[in-house]
Amino acid sequence: MNKSITPDIREVIGAVSYLPSVSLIMPFEPKMNLKTELAYKLKIATDKIEQQLMNNYEVEKANLILEKLKNLISQLSYTTYKKSVAIFVSPLIEKVYYLDIPVEEKIIIDESFEIRDLVYSKKDLHKYLVLILSAEWTKIFLGNTSQFIRLKTATPDNVNAIWNDIPSKTANFSDPSYRKEVMLNKFLKYSDDGLGIILNATPFPVFVMGTARVIGHFKKITANKRHVVEYIPGNYEEATETEIRKVLAPYIADWRKVMQNNILRQLDAAMNAGKLVSGIDAIWKKTVQKNARLLVVEKNFIYPAQRVSDTEISLHDPNDINQLFIKDAVDDIIERVLVNGGDVEFVDEGLLKDYQKIALIQFY
């Protein structure tokens, strides 16, 4: 049930606009770094914040924020397995988020806190996977802007390893060409299984390279098609890593396009699997259940709302001045997803026109 805004609440809402707030977003992996190293980085960030506050705000207001910030930092958990931390302090509110997303360090001193700043602070990793196929072997590489690393899996990467592993139904077949086709499909299935194992840990966009014939077979058997952003036909059996990266260059030049195409494929796959929710009303209900893997939102999409119940909202009526309202339900949803271990991506306006500007992929 909605509650009327009391005079004291209205006074607080009107008073906070001129008061400073601080957002500190930082990488924070205690299991991967020494506590002393993290503490030192936090101190440097705190010193920067202190200098900016003292230069731009009255001493009393600056000291109030600094005291709250230092208190929160002193209580940080160094037993978390998360990848980053976000600390928000204002004269009225104190929040700490431990997040599963990698971020760049960012300090924001302003009049308000925007949960979207957490998403904007994500590291733009530019990581992708390359699966190179042939009828004889397969290779998987992890690439980014500076590295190209061969990955190994427990599945066979050479057809000779499975050549005598013939299905019983075809064991007595005398047609060599038919046997080759059967073994190729079997071998490619192993390769796809290996790719799937890697994608479970690192769900990056995938480029598949190989002859048109082998790619055609792979398309029929792969269970990872939602991750494949491009098939690049050609014979790469004798190609060096440098030559492979040269072929890839035009495909990854527009990285934002790569990522957005990858996201659209994931949305389509989730829809086919019955794990996609679209529209803000339906997503609001689902995020209460804490089953959100990836939230995708058109940039600049906001939705002022009124709470109907714990699981329902409606569009806010600006003429109804006696009701508490949610400034932006999209921000509230983003916060829920991040706090509960999910990820968030913003895409260009119009890209989610078929999903009412916002879509949610659940775990599956």
Fold and architecture overview:
With 364 residues, the protein is α+β, with helices and mostly antiparallel strands. It is built from ten helices and 15 strands. Strands 7-6-5-8-9 form a five-stranded mixed β-sheet, sandwiched between helices. The protein has a four-stranded antiparallel β-sheet with strand order 3-2-1-4, covered by helices on one side. Helix 6 links the parallel strand 8 (206-210) and strand 9 (228-233). Helix 2 packs antiparallel against helix 3 and helix 9 runs parallel beside helix 10. The longest helix has 26 residues, at 176-201. It is globular and about 85 Å long.
Low-confidence stretches: 1-17
What's the helix-strand series?
Answer: HEHHEEEHEEEHEHEHHEHEEEHEE
How would you write the strand order of the largest sheet?
7-6-5-8-9
Strand tally, please? 15
> Over the alpha carbons, how many angstroms does the gyration radius reach?
26 Å
Per DSSP, the total helix count is 10
Name the beta content range: 15-25%
What class do helices, strands and sheet pairing give? alpha+beta
Shape: globular
How far the N terminus sits from the C terminus, by CA atoms, comes to 34 Å
Largest sheet: 5 strands, mixed
Percent range for helical residues? Answer: 25-40%
In round numbers, the mean pLDDT is: 86
